[in-house]
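Problem statement: downstream parser choked on a complex file, so we are re-checking the raw output for the beta-D-fucopyranose run. The parser issue turned out to be on our end (a line-ending mismatch), but while we're here, posting the original submission so the record is complete.
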Amino acid sequence: MNSFPKDFLWGTATSAYQIEGAYKKDGRGASVWDRFCETKGKVWEGHTGKVACDHYHRFREDIGIMRDLGLQAYRFSISWTRILPSGRGKVNAKGLEFYDRLTNELLQAGIRPFCTLFHWDYPTKLYDKGGWLNEESPKWFSDFTLKVAERLGDRIVDWMTLNEPQVFVGLGHGTGEHAPGDKLPIAKQLKIVRNVQLAHGLGVQALRAGCAKRGRIGWAPVGVVFYPATDSPGDIEAARKWTYGCGNNHMFSNTLWSDPVVLGRVAPEAEKAFGKALPKYSDADLHTMAQRMDFYGVNIYQGTPVTEGPKGKGKVIRFPDGNPRTAFVWNVTPESLYWGPKFLHERYKLPLYITENGLSNIDWVSTDGKVHDPQRIDFLGRYLGELKRVVNDGVPVKGYFQWSLLDNFEWAEGYKQRFGLVHVDYGTQKRTLKDSCDWYRNVIRTQGDMI
Ligand code: FCB
């Protein structure tokens, strides 16, 4: 076999705050991102998600584009504060109605909805009560999840609890670069880790209890990928070790997060790295966290090369000067889409989805009225080539979600970064399909055979 399986799923991904806009419409409450955007100096050029792509009002047009692309699946997230403006308590019917319409429209277009419950837009009202540090926070999340499950779980089958906990904890509560902008000591960040893992576990339970259809449930952490500089067994072993590793002063680890959630244990690597700073995980905690999952979603954009190095410790290799980089200055490393899924599957044994992958590029509308983005086509082609290779090596990757359908609000970078297959003019909200749209349409049409 040298192709993608017939049932391999092709999609794109977005998230609520990054595209919806309509920040006060129909009773939506504020999230930490609304507040963060209003704090001077936090987001590039003071950009905000108040309007974003105005997807809240234009979702039908956007689904029309998806249909034109031949998209098989679409990953989106729910804005917690549209459903529960105060984060808990009274439900806002209009919020649920929006996702109801969105779901119906997707299904009518023959597109399978993949729903993320939490993609970083935490309710300010709950943050002001201590947020993720509050022992009640896992329960707040599962109460919200239950409301969504009860409403949409008769139609949506595929669910992810949380997007990239490494980022919303590490950047939101560690470095302060993302909302809510806190800079907590490591022991407090680790307390949040534990609460977030409990929230995931209770969230899975809520989905299983609330959905009328039997759900397929996963989550979507960052894939922190180290790949071998050469194919030598020593380099491969070093890369594996680093991919399973933990630094002692940051959140960017696979195993710190996923060992409790998938394997029901604290990662030995995390114990070693953090020692006493780790909170206590009781058996009951681990039992709650480690709910059976149907898949492991993972977001992979880049990786870091490693060699065997002296003393078997492995050594990170510096990229050569002038290495290809995206507009975000992220290194172009297609190998990450081979080694990431491979190592993660070795440890967690679950079917995988690539829940995000893509690049930001300097795109604009040319004088011919089109948007030419050859770098995106080249980048995606290279990464998908590596994904095909790992699938052919027997790693069960079930689908791929390109980030992102539309150019959108890229968090602290505002509208500086353009990740879309579709260009958005934020002044007029005009959508222009980039060249990469035609290319991705063909990828889907040929079920990846042209890769
Ligand atoms: C990921 C986020 C996503 C988007 C991409 C570029 O970290 O999950 O929302 O910002 O990066």
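For whoever reads this later: The chain has a mean pLDDT of 98.
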